[in-house]
Design brief:
Keywords: Cytoplasm, DNA damage, DNA recombination, DNA repair, DNA-binding, Hydrolase. It is found in: Cytoplasm. Pfam families: HHH_5 (PF14520), RuvA_C (PF07499), RuvA_N (PF01330). The protein is of the alpha+beta class and about 230 residues long. The chain folds into 3 domains: about 60 residues, Nucleic acid-binding proteins (OB fold (Dihydrolipoamide Acetyltransferase, E2P)); about 70 residues, DNA polymerase, domain 1 (Orthogonal Bundle); about 60 residues, Helicase, Ruva Protein, domain 3 (Orthogonal Bundle). Helix content is about 50%, strand content about 15%. The N and C termini lie far apart (about 55 Å). About 35% of the residues are buried.
């Protein structure tokens, strides 16, 4: 199993890149969001990968974070969602956006991805809602690991080209957002709330205040979870 590749970007196509790792070229399929965030040809890139093996086909799919790779794995388990559809959803929403959409039952957000119909979007929300809290909980740990830029192989230089010279990437939420949501989710479950209720409340709080820290998310989530009346 190939879990991660670090090498020089040889070329970029509409849906994939070729990464030269020690003289061996790996064809890696990525979402639009990931492709837009990669540096130019000749620069060093690092992607977590998932190898899909079929009877007549082997394909590598690349992700900038382990959190996004985990969502890809779960999305692929939903009936009617193949690799292409999974990349479309992740490309439209990003890993954290997928977490929020599923926990909030936001079918329209999932449906906004290219090629995703209402029935498929509904299946994604229904089948993954119980799994979303676990992914959200691991988000903080993964974000901490992702916060450090990958080291360049010996003798190679990481991309230092001016941002203006690169293809602009879609807006991304700060890595701390995932860590804050993870901490808030952990605190609420420790207080006795079910993972599903806690994750839903944290997702709503994060949607209202994307930059909030863990303490602010906990306060907002507790307010939402408080008995009405």
């Amino acid at each position: 199993m190939i879990g991660k590749l670090t090498g020089r970007l040889d070329y970029r196509s509409e849906d994939h890149v070729l990464i030269d790792v020690g003289g061996v070229g790996y064809l890696v399929y990525c979402s639009d969001r990931t492709l837009a965030a990669l540096p130019g040809p000749g620069q060093v890139v690092a992607l977590y990968t998932d190898l899909v093996v079929r009877e007549d086909l082997m394909q590598l799919f690349g992700f900038p974070t382990l959190l996004e790779k985990e969502w890809h794995r779960l999305l692929m388990g939903v009936q009617g969602v193949g690799a292409k559809a999974s990349l479309a959803i992740l490309g439209a929403l990003g890993a954290e956006g997928v977490s929020r959409a599923i926990m909030l039952g936001d079918i329209n957000a999932i449906k906004a991805a290219k090629g995703i119909g209402p029935k498929t979007a509904q299946r994604v929300v229904i089948e993954l809602k119980d799994k979303a809290p676990g992914v959200m909980a691991m988000g903080g740990t993964l974000s901490a690991a992702m916060g450090t830029a990958p080291a360049a192989p010996e003798g190679e230089v990481l991309d230092t080209a001016p941002a203006a010279a690169r293809k602009p990437a879609p807006p991304a939420r700060p890595l701390g957002s995932a860590a804050a949501q993870s901490d808030a989710l952990s605190a609420l479950t420790n207080l006795g709330y079910s993972p599903s209720d806690a994750a839903g409340a944290v997702a709503r709080a994060a949607a209202d205040a994307p930059e909030a820290d863990a303490a602010a998310l906990i306060r907002a989530a507790l307010k939402a979870l408080a008995p009405k009346g």
